[in-house]
Amino acid sequence: MRFAPGVRRFALPAFGAAAVLAIVAPPLSIVALAVGVFVAWFFRDPDRRPSGPGVVSPADGEVSVVRTEGDQVRIGVYLSATDVHVTRAPFDGTVERVTHRPGAHRPAFSKASERNERVDVDVTTDHGPAEVSLIAGAFARRIHPYVDSGEALSRAQRIGHIDFGSRTDVLLPPTYDREDLLVSEGDRVRAGESILARGES
């Protein structure tokens, strides 16, 4: 099993505590071991393949936002604690810039999360400008982008991860409209696999 960067930072202290507690307080050792296993599971990074042509989901989770912003459509995916938190590129393109925006840490499923800490990845595609946003949640304190300005993106490529709870948005290129969408609010999707919008990527 592949793991996202940062797993050692959180999992190793828990496993170390479990080893020490096994000698001095065995019941607490079980709790520490369980925490370590959960953290390792949370940072899992499985391989994914797109299930067909089109824009793939940038994240695992539930579609929580579908709305039109000017001439573009935004799709937001809420990630619960049980979802894989590695994010993927929805389409091929070139990274124009990666911008960190400090902010609050409201629950990622709430409307107030629009003002949360985030990292915006602006992308130029064959269909026009687009954006992928990694948004921190109530407990998330670190967003880890894997890409930088000038890099070429391939559809379903890993582009970052968020520690412990979050939301990931994709602002589709302007050539896509609501009629192209294959998902609606409440649908479950998988990063790099589920198709959000039909058409070429």
Describe the structure.
- The protein is of the alpha+beta class.
- The chain is built from two helices and 13 strands.
- The chain has helices at about 5-25, 25-40, and strands at about 55, 60-70, 70-80, 85-90, 95-100, 120-125, 130-135, 145, 150-155, 160, 165-170, 190, 195.
- α1 packs antiparallel against α2 (about 25-40).
- The mean pLDDT is about 85.
- GO terms for molecular function: phosphatidylserine decarboxylase activity.
- It holds the Pfam family PS_Dcarbxylase.
* Gyration radius over CA: 18 Å
How confident is the prediction overall: mean pLDDT?
87
- How many β strands by DSSP? 13
CATH architecture of the largest domain: Distorted Sandwich
Distance between the termini: 28 Å
Helix content range: 10-25%
| β-sheet strand percentage | 25-35%
What's the CATH first level of the largest domain? Mainly Beta
CATH topology of the largest domain: Glucose Permease (Domain IIA)
Task: Outline the low-pLDDT stretches.
Answer: none
Order of helices and strands: HHEEEEEEEEEEEEE
Q: Which outline best applies?
A: elongated
Overall structural domain count: 2
Summarize the biggest pleated sheet: 8 strands, antiparallel
Q: Structural class, please? A: alpha+beta
GO molecular function, one term: phosphatidylserine decarboxylase activity
Transmembrane segments: 12-43
Keywords: Cell membrane, Decarboxylase, Lipid biosynthesis, Lipid metabolism, Lyase, Membrane, Phospholipid biosynthesis, Phospholipid metabolism, Pyruvate, Transmembrane, Transmembrane helix, Zymogen
Protein name: Protein sorting system archaetidylserine decarboxylase
